[in-house]
Structure formats: structure tokens, C-alpha cells
Design a protein that fits this description.
Structural class of chain A: alpha+beta
Largest sheet of chain B: 6 strands, mixed
CATH architecture of chain A: 2-Layer Sandwich
Oligomer: heterodimer
CATH topology of chain B: Ribosomal Protein S5, domain 2
Structural class of chain B: alpha+beta
CATH class of chain A: Alpha Beta
Radius of gyration of chain A: 18 Å
Chain lengths: 241, 278
């Protein structure tokens, strides 16, 4: 979307620059309970994008007054490590990180049963260790795993993935190169067990008829990622896989 | 860090019930239809010292936008492009909820959604704002000033932004042989190649409300902002607020927004026509 030509063709003979087909996700790895101190934690790698999420709480509010009488307050921080990008990123929160922290918090508020913990605070911290596209959706997927690992009741697990448009074609799970030189990036996160969308954004330009199509593709990806989330949780906690 | 708003007044559940039950009968607390905008007004050229300005009003909501054009440096990776900066101020005079200080997450989100909807479709032709490639370009500062908050700031801000850009006259900069830049020629219009408008839909349970007023926003779960260019392409989208949306309701929400964008486009076109020299 920078208006510049991509150094490599983004689509050639139906294959993407990294050899994937339009509907292929990048390889995904997930781990939970990777941090000692946090009440719940998760690590997620999708392609070269890597994030760590930690959850603290429900706990006492850090300052008096930061409470709601009928539910828990959620604090959420999406943050990129200074070494996560090609050029060093200033560790001070950027406007982008402030916006993403907000949309991620709002996505998680839809699933956490906050009314069960009035007058408490639940903290969700996500650090991007390596950024190669799709960091916000990776952050949400990892945050929801960390919340589950912390035993915080949710309406359902949240998984996220971005659909992009490259050389006029919709493709699933775009990486940084496809984001940078493609025509559109539409991150979606949802609760697949309830068919609810909790995050929806579009950066770029798509045709009206492409919107439902892009959403459908994202949902296919979300269901696949959700299956992996369940698997990693079942490996640690048992239960149906 | 983003924190659940905790200093908001506890909204009487009754009001939500009232708005919901009215919506089920197809009407609203201010007697509008569910898909009806409040009266919209756009006035261009409201700030004399700005290079371009506009005031957008949707019902009682008032948002002003002002443009200043300056000479500055291009981004390192885009040496042959001018620069567009979008900033939003939620002024403390606009609402009892707004506090003085640097932009908070709501102001930043609003600015970034507008920024993307302008940048991605290339509303301003930034390649036409270069003085010396890699050295000196024109920097367009678009400052959006929220003056009175009665809901639907996104659409009002988008309209004000578009109006201000279309109203902008760029000083006639010329590059001298020694590389200095001076204003010598007559001003020219800012190269604006497209028109973009946004349509906001309030999500209240299973009900969609176009152009939510503040009292509707306060009881809503969230909203969806759709931005369209004049050809009807989708150039921006943001779910804002803790709402969730049924997967099979995303299509109807899109269709609803799509059915409304031309109304806002008409307002924009009309105010430009009224303002252009006859």
C-alpha cells in the first residue's frame, strides 16, 4: 500500500511470493504457560511473526478508583519490542500501538465474562517479538490463549487473521511484504464457536462485492487457528482435542 | 495502555431498554427512522488564516477541520511524495467527558481511521507536492477540531476533513536555483483526486442505528464505521467499541452503510458547488 512496486511478484501462477496458495495460512506454533510469574501466558509464532502474551488478574486495581462496581476493568497493552522490526522501533508507545491496544482490548471485552469479577482489574500484555505482518491478529490469538491459561472465564476463544488483497486477488494471512505492497489489509478476529466478530478493520481499498468474500476467507482461517488453540490447551489441561 | 473506561456515568438500563424497544418498532428517541441521518450541513472556508477549512454539522455535533500547508522534508522511504498529517483534538469545550491534554486513544483512533480512509485511496495526490525530490516537499497538516459532541464524530470529522481539503489553496511555492523555496506564484488548489465519506452504524444488541446520537452511542455496544469513495469502493472500515457482531449480520451492516454513502457525498458535492466561483 506504499504505492511502490514490490521487489518480487506477489502472485505468480497462483502462488504467493513464499509459495503459499491464496487460502494457505503460514505455519503456526503455539505454547502456553511459558512465563513463570504471569497468571496465564502464551507464545505464538505464525510465519516469522512472533508474539508473547501474559495475563495478570483478576486482581486489586493498581490505583484507587480504577474500578467498576459491576464488572472487571480490562487493561490491555499491545507493544512492539524495539528489535522486532527492520529498523529499531522507539519503545515509547506509537499512535499505532495506542490504537491497536484499544481495538484489542475491545475485542477481548466482548468475550471475557467481566461481570463475574466486579471491582477487579484484568491485565493483558502482549509483546511483539518479531513483526512480519499480522501482529495484531497474532496478539489477539495469543491473548485469548493466555486468558484461558489464567483460567479466566470467557464466552469463547478468540482467534484472528488478516485477509489481504494482492495483485487484485484476495489472499489469507498476509505477511509484511504482502501488506506493504498489496492493495488492502483486513484484519478480522472472532469467536468461531459463537459466530461473533470481535475485531474488524480495513486498511486499503476493496470492491463492495469483495467484503463478504474477504470475511468468509478470514473465518475459514479463524476456524483453523481456533482448532490449534484448542489443541494446545488440551495438551496442557486435558479434555477433548 | 488501553483501559476500560471506568469513570463513565452508570447509564440507566431503562434508557437502553427504551431505545431498544423503540428500535424494534422501527423508530428512535428523536423520532428518526433507523436508517435516517440527522440534518447534515457543511460550510467551507470558516477559518481565514487556514489554507483550507470546513465546518461539518450533523445534528448538534460540530466538527471543524483546518488545513495548513508547509514546506518540510519527505519520509526517507518516500522521497518523491509529499506528506499528509492528520490530527484530531477532542476539545474540552466539546463535552463534559473530554479533558485537556494530549490526544487520548479515542482521538488517536479517530485520527487514524480518517487518515487511512484518505491515504489508502490516494485522496490527496502526494506525488504532486514535491519541490525537490528527497529534500523538500509540501507537508499538509489536517487538524480536526471537535467543537460539540453529540455523537457520530467519525462521519462529521470525515466530512469536515474532506471539505477542508477541497477548500485548500496551496501557496504558489517555487524553487530557486540555489535550492531555496519562495512563495512567488498565485495559490493553486490542493490536488484532491477523490471524494471519500464515511457512514457510521451504531450496534445495539441486534439492532443497527445509522448516525447514532450521543445518547444512543452511550447505550450502544459499539459502532461500525465504513468509508467509501465516490465510486462506492470500500476504502476504510473500523469496528469501534466493545460490541461483537454476528458473522451473518456483517453483510447487512455493510449493505445498510452502502445504501447511505451517497447522501453524504451529495452534501459534500453541494457545498463545493456553492463555494466554487461562478
Amino acid at each position: 500500500m506504499s504505492g511502490k512496486e514490490s521487489p518480487v511478484p506477489l502472485l505468480k501462477d497462483g502462488k504467493r511470493h513464499d509459495g503459499r496458495g491464496p487460502m494457505d495460512l503460514r505455519p503456526i506454533e503455539m505454547k502456553i504457560g511459558i512465563l513463570h510469574n504471569a497468571d496465564g501466558s502464551a507464545w505464538l509464532k505464525i510465519g516469522k511473526t512472533e508474539v508473547v502474551a501474559a495475563v495478570y488478574g483478576p486482581r486489586e486495581p493498581p490505583m484507587k478508583g480504577m474500578v467498576l462496581p459491576d464488572r472487571a476493568v480490562i487493561r490491555c497493552r499491545y507493544h512492539m519490542a524495539p528489535f522486532s522490526t527492520e529498523e529499531r522501533k522507539n519503545p515509547a508507545p506509537s499512535r499505532r500501538e495506542i490504537e491497536l491496544s484499544k481495538v484489542i482490548r475491545e475485542a477481548l471485552e466482548a468475550t471475557i465474562l467481566t461481570h463475574l469479577f466486579p471491582r477487579t482489574v484484568i491485565d493483558v500484555f502482549v509483546e511483539v517479538i518479531q513483526a512480519d505482518g499480522g501482529t495484531r491478529t497474532a496478539a489477539i490469538t495469543a491473548a485469548s490463549l493466555a486468558l484461558a491459561d489464567a483460567g479466566i472465564p470467557m464466552r469463547g476463544l478468540v482467534a484472528g487473521v488478516a485477509v489481504g488483497k494482492v495483485q487484485g486477488k484476495l489472499v489469507l494471512d498476509i505477511d509484511e511484504l504482502e501488506d506493504m505492497y498489496g492493495e488492502a489489509d483486513m484484519p478480522v478476529a472472532g469467536i468461531p464457536t459463537l459466530n461473533k466478530i470481535v475485531l474488524l478493520q480495513l486498511n486499503g481499498v476493496i470492491e463492495p462485492h469483495e467484503f463478504p468474500q474477504a470475511l468468509k476467507m478470514a473465518w475459514e482461517g479463524i476456524k483453523k487457528i481456533h482448532a490449534l488453540q484448542k489443541k494446545v490447551l488440551a495438551t496442557k489441561y486435558g479434555g477433548e482435542q | 495502555m488501553s483501559i476500560t473506561p471506568f469513570n463513565i456515568p452508570i447509564i440507566p438500563k431503562l434508557k437502553r431498554e427504551t431505545i431498544l424497544s423503540l428500535a424494534k418498532r422501527g423508530t428512535r428517541i428523536d423520532k428518526r427512522r433507523l436508517d435516517q441521518y440527522r440534518p447534515i450541513k457543511l460550510t467551507l472556508g470558516v477559518a481565514g488564516k487556514a489554507h483550507g477549512s470546513a465546518l461539518a454539522e450533523i445534528g448538534n455535533t460540530k466538527v471543524m477541520a483546518g488545513v495548513k500547508v508547509e514546506v518540510g522534508r519527505p519520509f526517507k522511504d518516500l522521497p518523491e511524495m509529499g506528506v499528509l498529517n492528520v490530527n484530531v483534538e477532542l476539545l474540552p469545550l466539546a463535552s463534559s467527558e473530554f479533558e485537556p491534554g494530549p490526544p487520548d486513544e479515542n482521538a488517536i483512533e479517530l485520527a487514524r481511521v480518517i487518515d487511512r480512509a484518505l491515504r489508502e485511496p490516494g485522496v490527496v495526490d502526494l506525488s504532486d507536492l514535491v519541490l525537490i525530490p528527497g529534500e523538500k516537499v509540501l507537508v499538509v497538516w489536517l487538524d480536526i477540531y471537535v467543537l460539540d459532541h453529540d455523537g457520530n464524530l467519525f462521519d462529521a470529522a470525515m466530512l469536515a476533513a474532506m471539505g477542508a481539503l477541497l477548500n485548500t489553496k496551496v501557496p504558489g511555492y517555487e524553487v530557486r536555483e540555489d535550492g531555496s523555496v519562495e512563495v512567488t506564484g498565485p495559490p493553486r488548489p490542493l490536488p484532491v483526486t477523490k471524494r471519500v465519506v464515511s457512514v457510521t452504524i451504531g450496534i445495539l444488541g441486534n439492532v443497527f442505528l445509522v448516525d447514532p446520537s450521543l445518547e444512543e452511542e452511550v447505550v450502544s455496544d459499539g459502532k461500525l464505521v465504513f468509508a467509501f469513495d465516490e465510486g462506492g469502493k470500500l476504502v476504510g472500515l473500523q469496528k469501534s467499541g466493545p460490541a461483537w457482531l454476528d458473522l451473518d449480520r456483517a453483510g447487512p451492516a455493510f449493505n445498510l452503510a452502502y445504501s447511505k454513502y451517497k447522501e453524504l457525498l451529495d452534501v459534500l458535492e453541494k457545498s463545493i458547488a456553492e463555494n466554487s466561483p461562478k
